[in-house]
Amino acid sequence: MFDLAAAQSVEEIPDWTEAPLAQLIDHLLVHYHAPLRADLPRLDALAERALDAHGDGTLAPFSAIAAQLGALRAELLSHMQKEEVVLFPAINRLERASLDGSGAKDQPCGSIAYPIRAMVHEHVEAAGHLAELRRLTEGYRVPDGACGTVISLFTGLEELESELLRHIHLENEILFPRAEKLAQSQRRPEETS
């Protein structure tokens, strides 16, 4: 997984509560979306290899782990696509309109609140998959006698959880509230009554 600490020192990390929204979106795309697209197939392959080698259930319930990871992967890929095609461009348009003083005009998705609510709901679902993976792996505790594949899988799942929770936090707690506040500030008086 992408190692944020190795790539950026603390001094280089912007204050996301103040940085331009476009910069935060670019950060999310580069440091979270792209690595997820690379890591999810690798983790799927590790889960399948672990299932093939240890499918008898003596080490861990690899069938359930592989199924849960597959469901999470499918959900995340769809989710990121929606953010990249609909929500992030809408937020970028809002910010550009605010900067050039033109106000929000003709947002293709209508109110930004609806796609944000949908993304937050999907974040809750993804967190549920992560919680189930944590339960199935007993907190990513590597079983005694585990092979390198299982060690890599459990380590990768724990890193996935950590990065995904950071990713979700940036969106739910910083990007989305700031975008909604910006959208509210750009509404015409007749839209607020």
Describe the structure concisely.
The protein is mainly alpha-helical. The protein is built from six helices and no strands. The chain is elongated and about 65 Å long.
Write the layout of secondary structure elements.
Elements: H1 4-7, H2 21-54, H3 62-100, H4 113-136, H5 148-186, H6 189-192
Helix pairs in contact: 2-3, 2-5, 3-4, 3-5, 4-5
Would you kindly provide a written description of the structure presented here, covering whatever features stand out?
The chain has 193 residues and is mainly alpha-helical. Helices cover 75% and strands 0% of the residues. It has 6 helices and no strands. It has helices spanning 4-7, 21-54, 62-100, 113-136, 148-186, 189-192. Helix 2 (21-54) runs antiparallel to helix 5, helix 3 (62-100) runs parallel beside helix 5 and helix 4 (113-136) runs antiparallel to helix 5 (148-186). The longest helix is centred in the middle third of the chain and has 39 residues, at 62-100. It starts with a helix and ends with a helix. The relative contact order is 0.15.
The total count of helices amounts to 6
Proportion of beta-strand residues: under 5%
Cα distance spanning the termini? 47 Å
What spatial form do the alpha-carbon principal axes imply? Answer: elongated
Mean pLDDT: 87
Rg (C-alpha, Å):
20 Å
Helicity level: over 70%
Largest β-sheet summary: none
Q: Determine the structural class based on helices, strands and strand pairing.
A: mainly alpha
Order of helices and strands: HHHHHH
Task: Tell how many strands the DSSP assignment holds.
Answer: 0
Report the uncertain regions. Answer: 6-11
